[in-house]
Target: Transcriptional regulator, TetR family
Amino acid sequence: MTAIRTARQRARDEVTRTIKDEARRRLAADGAAKLSLRAVARELGMVSSALYRYFPSRDELLTALIVDSYNALGDAVDEALERRADADPCARWVGVCHAARRWALAHPHEYALLYGTPVPGYAAPDDTMVPGVRLPLALTVIVREADRAGRLGPPEGGPLPDEVREDLAPLTVEQVPGLSPETLAAVLAAWAQLLGLVSTELFGQFNGAVTARERFFEHAATRLGRSVGLPPPTGERTGEPTTGSD
Amino acid sequence: MTAIRTARQRARDEVTRTIKDEARRRLAADGAAKLSLRAVARELGMVSSALYRYFPSRDELLTALIVDSYNALGDAVDEALERRADADPCARWVGVCHAARRWALAHPHEYALLYGTPVPGYAAPDDTMVPGVRLPLALTVIVREADRAGRLGPPEGGPLPDEVREDLAPLTVEQVPGLSPETLAAVLAAWAQLLGLVSTELFGQFNGAVTARERFFEHAATRLGRSVGLPPPTGERTGEPTTGSD
DNA sequence: GCTCCCGCAAGAGCACTGCTCTCGTTTATG
DNA sequence: CATAAACGAGAGCAGTGCTCTTGCGGGAGC
Model:
């Protein structure tokens, strides 16, 4: 009975997926704030109360969408990561950053759902943790593989305060073994700063100032990669040996 | 009659201020998403329709709160800027970053109103532009005064793409004369990245990873300052000449 | 001083929302 | 076959933003 899953169960999965699809559509149209269960139900030709058989509340529906969105972003990022598996570390870094930004621009409301204002009484359940770290994890992969290839320098900036070093120590041994606390701190900061670049552009804060957004972002992402210790692309002399010629 | 403003007008201003105060209180309590006109009116002992004599819509009320919040943040930042008027440029930079973060932590919902998910159909009116640039403007002030004191190096990272240089050229002559496009681009990016650091922490994205938040932020802010060309604090040898010994 | 008018608060009402409960019906299982 | 679980539909509750009408009262003009 667990093999074929009763016809009812399959119908349930089908309806669940249909609801999520329609919800995603309405999310893309109007944003999370105006996503209404009733509208989704109306569009699906059912009555609002029927939706509660599938999602106990509106927030639960949003959680499901959040997980899906994290995974969609994660897929886009991983794809960029693997497509450039043999490329220069810096090029990989910029490629992953570009993939994240592009996904955000293509799905602004979903991005806002992930990294925008959290809904008031809502605490992200653990289900969102695993897919939520896929983007920062992709960044660490680049750095670790660059390190393994002997192409990772020390991160830019001053020495890491002891308190931060001790704070990040457990993470370095559990999650990303082989990475120095300095580099991990730099990657975490770069991740947050990457989100800042994307959010600031997407939420309209650059409106009066920056118009060459893609180029501006690329330049910023490149500097971000360099700040974590990735070398400039091989064979290219940028004319400005920032991290020294050592 | 324009001098004293008729008693009616004064009463109107009084009520307007009272409404905004109560709205701000409810905003701090429940967040922008659940800010309801009816609740504000109820708390004030009036009926909801009466509020529409003062604010034509809920979004207009939010706009008023946004302007106030931008100014509150701007005041906090300017205070930090002037208190360290004679300090080291890098210390000033970090001080301003700290002031922004502290204000955000103290007023999370107001910060979210400014830099979080924009409300769906809402376009920020021009009233919000001037107070909205006070934070990035404070950052440019630090950099410009450091430059005037001969203590500003070139920003870290590769050369600025021509497209970005031309894009930012008008800004450099109109808004921040005397700043090179390279530095302006670095400051704009640093601003967005600063928002990223604050938002990521405030919106709970660091939850499982970083616990020594203040120190982590300070370190990241310091690196940010260095990335725009500010020198490390005088008299301190950090032992790592990142931007070269030129 | 009197009247007229306009700003104001109140209330009813509309079209929504999330969510709960009940009521038959359908479906799967013992 | 019978029983229990799952299901869709509908009514209903409390709340929302917003509009419209009504009546009151103070300020302005005669």
